Each structure stands twice: as structure tokens, then as C-alpha cells.
Amino acid sequence: MCENSKSSLKHKCEDIKNRLFVIQDGASLAVFRIIIGILMMRDVPYLIFSAQQSMDGFRARYYGFDWVQPDETLIYLCAALLPFAAFCVTLGLFYRLAMPITTIIVAYIFIITPEYYLNHYYMLLLFCALLSVMPANKVWALDARIKSKDDDNDDSGVPAWNYWLLKGQTEIILIYAGLVKINADWLNLQPLSAWIRSATHDFPTPMRWFFYFDAPIAIGAYGVILLHIVGAPLLLYRRTRIWVFGLYVCFHLTNSMMFDIGIFPYMTIATTLLFFNPDWPRRVIQKMQPLTTCLSSLYVQRPRLRLSRMVIITLMGAWMLVQIINPLPALLASNLAVAWHGHGDLFTWRMMLNNKSIYTVVFAAHMPDKQRIEFVPIDDFLSKRECFRVTGRPNTTVQFANYLADHYRTVYSTDQVEIHAYIVLSINYREPELWADPTADLSSYRSIYGIQPWLTSVTKPRRTWEDYIHAPDYQNPTYGEILNAMKLPQEETITFDISDATLDERPTIPKCE
């Protein structure tokens, strides 16, 4: 019995291995390559422009990537190469060189601009990395056209593992995007109700009033969870695939119209197209042009592999294992806690999940030996987006505090500099509360993989939409009250971050986006 069981398991493993290396039509992979190339030309140059504009001054870093430094010459080289490389990817010209170069550029810009982190840029980077090792230039590519002149043999097929890996990555993203929404705030329609009501504020009256009720918003909130958790696996089945794909198209196009979420809807639609038979583009063309010959989706020739099958299978398994394990800790933790302390909020597919509002951001530099306190004019140091990240990502806050400490050490020629922060935030329209311990010297901390010890805890309960819109306006504390909270002496020489201010006046609400 045991021998039969082992033989059966071995037979199944061998069957899976053979299926991974069956040669399939490369048409669907080619369409995916073209769409990714177009999306890169559309969006990534904006990141390069942003990197060029913020070379001087404070630069945030991802934890563990301090060694990747922004270089002006390298950034300008990326700006010159990326449009050409992405265009070559789209056309399938010099693809084996253009795709890795594009991936390296995207990775470099992604790493040096953490203030611009968005899940769709991370998703784009992952798919670029995967395409770099895939023969996506076998169909509808200039490389294939050039090669066909020298070789009469049909070489338009690709190993099935290409599709399996891309579909597996897509399933992970979609399922995690649904699982993370099973939390108290989302199930109580926050922050979705506020977002939808804000987005539909200028809609015609009947439609605007329709979203005033919770029922249609609840259908959307719970429907998104079902679409991702149940719908994503159903893409794997032929009978349900077209219906789920139609739902995804409607869902993503609606999101694109209502919210500013960049290329994510179109990239996700492109990935879901991979679930159809690999020859679906040819079938579409055949229906549009009846005289066009449609090639079979299955070929008999074997690929010319440079790596052994076991090496490819091992690398595939390692990639998928990392992608599955990495988001798990954040999924198992409380969504509110993750949103508040920031640890695990990145690279875990926590999309459109929380709304973070910033009410007060005041940094103060204390030089005890000079008996001097200076309120930091953060607009002189941070862009709006950097301000938002500094007040929501603790490691970035610590990096900024260390940057300020170095700055004031130079300005006042002293080694004794303390950086304190009075930051008030709100998660999902709760009442605003202190995010950071104002008595802590943030410049004495460093970036860590974990939760910073100077963070406070969320204490305010969740509010309904009606409670939120009828709540009294928030009022900033005075400079004197902020100094008291920081436990800094008020009798020292004080420089304010705005002109003609006094301890009895209130700092302005920061312009962070």
C-alpha cells in the first residue's frame, strides 16, 4: 500500500512537471508584454521626474536599502533610457536586453523614491521581473519577425510555466487584496462610505442620494471581498472565467472613474486576460478577420531550455513561497494596528483599505547647550508627499529626525541636538489623537524592522459617517501647549516656524498629501 502511494505521488509530480513544460501559444503573453510596455511609458517617467526634482535635501529610504543611493547622473541616464527600453519592450525589439534593463530602471527608481510607494508600482516591478526571464517576444514582436527571415521553423510557442507563474502571482495579489479587507473598519463601511460619498458629491442628485444610504455601499464593500477571495480562484475554471472577468472589468473601470488609482485597474485587467486560453488573441483576430489562419494553442516541439527543468521548478517554487509568506504577518495582525504603526503596511497588498488624515505636524529642534528651541519650518525641508510619508511611516519619521539633527548641528555648531515631534493623526475618520510620543528624542532612534517604541496606541473609537461630518472642527494646540507636551522649557530662546508668532498662537495645519 505504501509503495503504491509513493508511486502514485511520484506519477502526479511527474505529470505536473510535464504540464509545466508543455509548449503553448505565446500570443497571450505577447499581449501582456505590449500592455505592460505601454503602461510603463505612461506612468514611470513621472516617478523619474519626481526623483530628479528632489535630489537635494532629505531623502527617505526603505529599510534595508540604505545602500542604494540616488545619483543625479544615474537618474538622468534612467530618464533617457527608460522610454526607449519600454518602447522596445512594447515592440518586442531586442527584448532579451530591453526587458531586464527596464526592470533594473524601474527597480532603481522604485527604491530611491519610497515617498511615492504605491501597490501598483510594486506590482509593476514584480511583473517586469517575471517578464525578464520569459520569452515574451515569440509572437507579435520585431525580434520574431527578424528571426523568421533566418529560420523557417515555427518558434512561437512558450513553456506553460510562464502562464502558471504569472497566474499564480495574480492569484496571490487578488486573494490577499480581499483577505485584508476582512476587518472591523471595512466591514463597518469605513473608509469606503466616506470615499464614495466624497467622490459622488458632484453627481446628479438622484445618484448622490442613492449613495447616502448604507445598503449600496455595503454591497460594494462586501462584494469586493467576495470578488477577490471567491472570484479570483474562479478565474482558473473555464466555465466561470468569462463571467468573473466581466465583473473584474466593471469593477476596475468603475474604480478608475471614481478614484485616482493610476495604472492599477488596467494592469489588473491585463493580468486577468492571462487566465484565458493562450491563443485567445488569435481567436479574437480570427473572428474579426475570418480569412486569418488561427494557430493551435498547443505545440509538439520542445523548447530550447538553457536551464534544467528542476532549476526552473525550484526557482518558481521559491518565488511563489516568498510571495505567499511576505504578506502573512500583516494579514494576521490587526488592520488598525498595522495602519497606525506602519509595520507591514508595505508590500502586502493592503490596497484602498484605510484613510489617514493629518491634523498637526510640528517638529522642534532643542539645543540644550545653546538654550535654544527652533520650530522646524517643514515646508522648507519636505514636499507635500514627503510630509505625508513622514507622518505615517515611523522609519521615515526617524530618518527625517536624524536629518534634522545633522542640519541643526551644522547650523549651530553643537553636538547637543534633540528632535521632538508633535503629530496628530486620524485613521478611518476617528477622532484625531497623538501618533508619536512628543517627549521622545526621535534623533536618538534608527530605522528598524518592527514597531518603533516611541509610537502611541490608538484609543479613539470608530465613528459613523454622520458622526464625522457633524463633529466640531479640529483646533491645533498653541505653541506653548506643544512645548509643554514635549516637556521643553519655554524660557529659552525660541524661533517659530512662521514669522511674528508667539507661544499663544497656533501652528498652521500642514499641507500634506
Describe this structure in words.
It is built from 21 helices and eight strands. It is of the alpha+beta class. It has a five-stranded mixed beta sheet with strand order 7-6-4-5-8. A three-stranded antiparallel beta sheet has the order 2-1-3. β4 (356-367) and β5 (372-375) form a beta hairpin. α2 (27-53) runs parallel beside α4, α7 (161-179) packs antiparallel against α11 (214-234) and α12 runs antiparallel to α13 (264-273). It is globular.
Which structural traits does this protein have?
53% helix; 8 strands; 513 residues; alpha+beta; 21 helices; three-stranded antiparallel β-sheet; single chain
Q: Mean pLDDT, nearest integer? A: 88
* Widest sheet, order of strands: 7-6-4-5-8
> Could you give the count of β-strands?
8
Beta-strand content estimate: 5-15%
Q: Percent range for helical residues?
A: 40-55%
> What is the straight-line distance between the termini?
65 Å
Q: What would you call the structural class?
A: alpha+beta
Q: For the CA atoms, what is the radius of gyration?
A: 27 Å
Describe the sheet with the most strands.
5 strands, mixed
Number of helical stretches of at least 4 residues: 21
Low-confidence stretches: 291-305
Task: Quickly describe the structure.
This protein is an alpha+beta fold and about 525 residues long. The protein has helices at about 1-20, 25-55, 70-90, 95-110, 120-130, 140-150, 160-180, 185, 190-200, 205-210, 215-235, 240-260, 265-275, 280-290, 310-325, 330, 335-340, 385-390, 395-410, 465-470, 480-485; strands at about 25, 155-160, 300, 355-365, 370-375, 420-425, 435, 495.
